[in-house]
Every structure is written in structure tokens, then in C-alpha cells.
DNA sequence: AACGAGGTCAACCGCGCGTCG
DNA sequence: GCGACGCGCGGTTGACCTCGT
């Protein structure tokens, strides 16, 4: 384990790297008794040889009781795509709309699974398609799950959900998917922002507990 | 079975902002 | 007004895992 040094006065050994079960227990017990905040003094008072920053990160990203673990659901994927298209890399802001998910988790998810496809030309069309589905469907959760599950399971983000909404071909030069514009079907009136919000509100009433301002 | 490449994710780092004395 | 401090955010790193050859 790498050892760091405090900058001030008396040198004190600081632990870095992965947290042990014992450290997790100490931090959890301390916060349950005294609450969070004042992380630097918290670390000292709890007897942890960690920086306040490290304690805060460990608590917020891992130990907090309401941290939700496990796979990102289709609905969460849609929200991440939608909110990122709106706000960019504002991970903490995006995370506020996915209860139990941390900004770090969303950031990692985006960078490892989505980013390399984010600039492909079908992405805006996919978002538009989902918006339309959300806007026009009375079974929003099912519609989203169907659309995105097909997309994820069959293509691993490497191509748009062509089987359900459009045709396309793989560009010989770089393998990127190219949509054939003319085969896009005409959907009902393009969704308005209000329609999208209504759809997400619908989702929130179906137990997903997600919402948008 | 062994090895390398690529993916995943917890943790760290640097910076900027707000607050307080 | 200014410096110290605490905190939060986004970017990056590196250890570990998985998968293909």
C-alpha cells in the first residue's frame, strides 16, 4: 500500500488505495452516529488514516445506504442519453435525476460504453425516436424497454435499433452505421419538450421514481 | 494453458467556488 | 479585500477482470 504524507507540521501516514472492510465499518459507524460533513475533521475524529476527500468519496460512491448497485436499466440509459444531450458532462446534475446512482458511476458508464458512439449520426435520431415513443405511447415503460433493449442486446451500441425504426448500412471505410434518411418513417407529430416531460412523469408514476425538472 | 488487448470501475488529482474569520 | 479552508465536480489513473487467440 502506497503511503502519503500530510503537508502540514507533523508528518502523518495516510493510507491510499482500496478501502478495507475495517475502514468501511469505521466510516459507516462514525457517520451513523455523527452525520456527514466536515470531512477532514471527520477522518481524524473517526481515527481513519485517510484524507477527508477520500472519506467523502468512499461514502458517497459506495457506502451510502441509498446507493443503487447493479446494471443500468433501459429507462436509466434513456435518461442518461437524454440528459447528457441536454447538459453535456454535468455528471452530478445528471445523477440527481437517477436516484441511487452516483455521478462517478454515470461518468464511468458513459465513458466506457457510450462515448465512442455518442457522436455517431444516428444518436440524435435515436433520441428523437425515443422522444416520439415517449410522447405517443400509453405504455411508455414497455416501449422504452423494447426500443432500448433491442438496441443494447443486439448491437451493443454499435448500431442504431434498425429493426424497429429504420434501415441503414455499415460504412465500409470505418464500419460506422449510416442511416438511410429516406426510409425513416413518419412518426406522429414530433414530440415537444412538454411531451417528453409528460412521458418521463408517466415513467415516474410507474415506479421508476425518476423525474426531470 | 498462457498471454495480450481491451473493458470496467474504484479511487485519486487538480481546479474552482463558496464561506468564514 | 484577502487568505485559509472545506467541499464538490470533472478528468484521469491504475488494478483487476474478461475475452479472444
TrEMBL record:
Annotated organism of origin: Dendrobium thyrsiflorum (Pinecone-like raceme dendrobium)
PANTHER family xrefs: MYB TRANSCRIPTION FACTOR-RELATED, MYB TRANSCRIPTION FACTOR-RELATED-RELATED
GO cellular component: nucleus
Chief location: nucleus
SMART domains: SANT (SM00717)
A GO MF term: DNA binding
KW Lipid biosynthesis (keyword) present: no
Domain HTH myb-type: 11-67, 68-118
InterPro entries (alphabetical): EOBI/EOBII-like_plant, Homeodomain-like_sf, Myb_dom, SANT/Myb
Protein name: Uncharacterized protein
Keywords: DNA-binding, Nucleus, Repeat, Transcription, Transcription regulation
Entry annotated with the keyword Lipid metabolism: no
Compartments reported by the entry: Nucleus
Domain Myb-like: start-end pairs: 11-63, 64-114
Amino acid at each position: 500500500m502506497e503511503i502519503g504524507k500530510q503537508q502540514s507540521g507533523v508528518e502523518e501516514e495516510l493510507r491510499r488505495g482500496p478501502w478495507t472492510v475495517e475502514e468501511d465499518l469505521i466510516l459507516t459507524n462514525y457517520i451513523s452516529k455523527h452525520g456527514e460533513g466536515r470531512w477532514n475533521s471527520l477522518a481524524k475524529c473517526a481515527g481513519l488514516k485517510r484524507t477527508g476527500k477520500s472519506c467523502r468519496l468512499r461514502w458517497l460512491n459506495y457506502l451510502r445506504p441509498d446507493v443503487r448497485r447493479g446494471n443500468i436499466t433501459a429507462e436509466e440509459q434513456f435518461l442518461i442519453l437524454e440528459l447528457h444531450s441536454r447538459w453535456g458532462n454535468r455528471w452530478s446534475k445528471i445523477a440527481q435525476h437517477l436516484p441511487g446512482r452516483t455521478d462517478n458511476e454515470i461518468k464511468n458508464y458513459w465513458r466506457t460504453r457510450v462515448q465512442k458512439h455518442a457522436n455517431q449520426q444516428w444518436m440524435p435520431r435515436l433520441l428523437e425516436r425515443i422522444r416520439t415513443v415517449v410522447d405517443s405511447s400509453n405504455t411508455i415503460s414497455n416501449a422504452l424497454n423494447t426500443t432500448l433493449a433491442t438496441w443494447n442486446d443486439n448491437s451493443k451500441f454499435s448500431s442504431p435499433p434498425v429493426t424497429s425504426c429504420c434501415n441503414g448500412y455499415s460504412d465500409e471505410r470505418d464500419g460506422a452505421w449510416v442511416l438511410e434518411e429516406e426510409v425513416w418513417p413518419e412518426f406522429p407529430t414530433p414530440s415537444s419538450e412538454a411531451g417528453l416531460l409528460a412521458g418521463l412523469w408517466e415513467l415516474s408514476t410507474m415506479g421508476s421514481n425518476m423525474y426531470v425538472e
